[in-house]
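Q: what sequence does this backbone want?
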């Protein structure tokens, strides 16, 4: 479990799992190292003797919220399990420019081999956590949950959704396998919302909610009549959303999707919806500036 200090972003739930070393994460790290190292490091190997040891520090170069320190461990463990890593800013902590986030020691060759790959993971995940936390602050004081989407970098979903949680938001479904979301194309394929909900309810496990995307008041009414558990209002303006909330009247959870960004969160939250889904939490985040310096 990720540890926190007094400067940590608030967790959305009482329990928040840390970054698990899943098969996907291991394969992703292996692929990233293969991509960078290929047949070897033709700069480092002629310059640095194989047994020469040294130390390094990882430093923040801007204000950021830390996420992904486990990835530093996973990367360097892959290149040399004997490298020692002392994390000074755990996931969920704040870092300021110049703060030392971790100290590393061991053979210099593996430290240099893993430097760029470790930083790529860390910069991206810290970027998402920092970006997400800024969005969460806009929803503060409102009884609404901010969630991500499946708009993630292929292969990075577990990592990016983890960074979203560190930033204080919540995850929508992880993939097509763990949540029923009937969208416009499903509705067309099934012949209507009523038919799609009926078929989905027959096929889905009894513990799974049925969510339906609605783009008009007529579709909201049909989703209500079909007894959808969650109704996603797609690309509606605040007035339309308020009208839909009144129509639904607590008979289903109300989610809003489309056009959710930091500048619109407060306005959307005032409409009385339960959930705001924002793809920009992941695809709109930039990698933050973090460096690693060798100190022999």
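A:
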């Amino acid at each position: 479990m990720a540890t926190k200090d007094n400067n940590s972003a608030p967790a959305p739930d009482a329990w928040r799992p840390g970054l698990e070393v899943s098969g996907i994460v291991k394969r992703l790290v292996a692929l990233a190292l293969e991509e960078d190292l290929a047949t070897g490091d033709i700069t480092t190997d002629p310059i640095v003797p194989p047994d020469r040891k040294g130390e390094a520090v990882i430093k923040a170069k801007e204000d950021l919220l830390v996420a992904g320190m486990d990835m530093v461990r996973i990367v360097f463990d892959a290149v040399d399990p004997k490298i020692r890593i002392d994390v000074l800013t755990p996931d969920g902590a704040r870092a300021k420019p110049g703060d030392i986030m971790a100290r590393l020691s061991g053979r210099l060759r593996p430290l240099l081999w893993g430097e760029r790959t470790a930083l790529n993971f860390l910069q991206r995940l810290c970027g998402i956590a920092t970006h997400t936390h800024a969005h969460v602050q806009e929803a503060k004081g409102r009884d609404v949950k901010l969630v991500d989407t499946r708009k993630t970098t292929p292969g990075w979903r577990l990592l990016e959704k983890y960074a979203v949680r560190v930033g204080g938001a919540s995850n929508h479904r992880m993939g097509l396998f763990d949540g029923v979301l009937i969208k416009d194309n499903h509705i067309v394929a099934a012949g209507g919302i009523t038919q799609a909900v009926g078929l989905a309810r027959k096929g889905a496990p009894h513990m799974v909610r049925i969510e339906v995307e609605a783009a008009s008041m007529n579709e909201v009414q049909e989703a209500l009549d079909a007894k959808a558990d969650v109704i996603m209002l797609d690309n509606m303006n605040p007035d339309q959303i308020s009208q839909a909330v009144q129509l639904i009247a607590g008979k289903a959870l109300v989610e809003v999707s489309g056009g959710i960004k930091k500048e619109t969160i407060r306005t959307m939250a005032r409409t009385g919806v339960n959930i705001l889904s924002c793809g920009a939490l992941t695809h709109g985040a930039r990698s933050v500036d973090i460096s690693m310096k060798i100190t022999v």
